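3.2 Worked example (two chains)
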Amino acid sequence: MRAITKGSCGLYPLEKANDTPPKTDQEARSRWGSFSHKSALNDLLMNEQYGLCAYSEINLEHHHLGVHIEHIQPKSRFPKRTFDYQNLVLSALAISDLETMDKASIFGGHHKGSRFDPTLFISCLIDNSANYFTYLSNGYIEPKRTLSERDKEKAQYTINLLNLNSPYLLAERRRWLDELDTLIDEHIDQGLSIEDLAAIYLLPRNQRLDSFFTANRQRFMKIGDQLIAQEAPEL
């Protein structure tokens, strides 16, 4: 899970709404439903997240899925944070996707719903969020094995809450990681530059990153870390 660096909002209608935040679940639902500036907010979040879903890291423009503005702390339980920009990210799946996807494949904010334990959930807004997870070649994401038992518990809770091993995500990650592993092997066998390959899949283009950025970065190991430190330290 790639760490997202939140900027200042700069969206006046959202800031204005947050001046008098909702106090109840019902008020939060009503006011959020009538908030008419979601399109501008969507664009702002899309650029801030380099085009990636906050939870699954799929590129939101390359996959045939909709998106929604996600409240990390659910507005039903934390109504005062309904218009708090620091609580808002962009997550894959629109309501229309829920009507066509198999229930077991639903992931991200729509799978989380109103369930949320702040003592266990690993937020994509903490600096080291990526360090809790390992991406396996078979498509699975699991807690990093070097974590403490408590941190493993938190990582597994987050994976389960967001359904990050949903059949859909498993298939997409496995397909992509098979392709990337093949490319890396070919470059090694042919004596080609791994650094150049890493640059293709780790550096942003037009404020966008490729899907599964953290999994890609783990594949390139130190080469990837050095490249990002030199060329894109903002990541």
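3.2.1 Second chain
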Amino acid sequence: MPGRTQQRPTAPDTATTTAPDTATPPRFVLWREVLVAYAAPAVMATAGGFATGQSELRIAALTTIAGTSALVATLVGLRHRRRSADSWAARGPVPLLALAFGLGCAALALAVGLAAAELLPRIPALADSPWPGRLRIDLPLSAAIAATMTTWRWRASLPRRRRAH
């Protein structure tokens, strides 16, 4: 037809033609994991503090809640990055691995939170502060969520092994 241009054939889209088993997973980048581990709970807890009118929750959102999440994500992420692809953590079921790391970090954080809630009120400047009492809840909850998410995302970044049928 006059005036019409002929369309060139396009190359097939490799994203849609690649099999899911051969697709490369996203890389595990620690600084991004730590940034998300800080920002997500900070935003959510701050929003909860504004919604409920709790000023101490807004302060804790940026300190104990988000800070604990970032610290745990850093430590767990550094540990995972040092693991080999043949380690037990790289081979085990993802939900079980994430649950184990989440519970383990929560138990450690609970011990730290209980000790801090007991010792910090002995400091005269913190004697009347409600902040040390929050540590019993803030630390283990933040640690559990951060460890679980970091472990899950680390495992998702590993290449999938082909299973023999």
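3.3 Remarks
The two ends are 54 Å apart (CA to CA).
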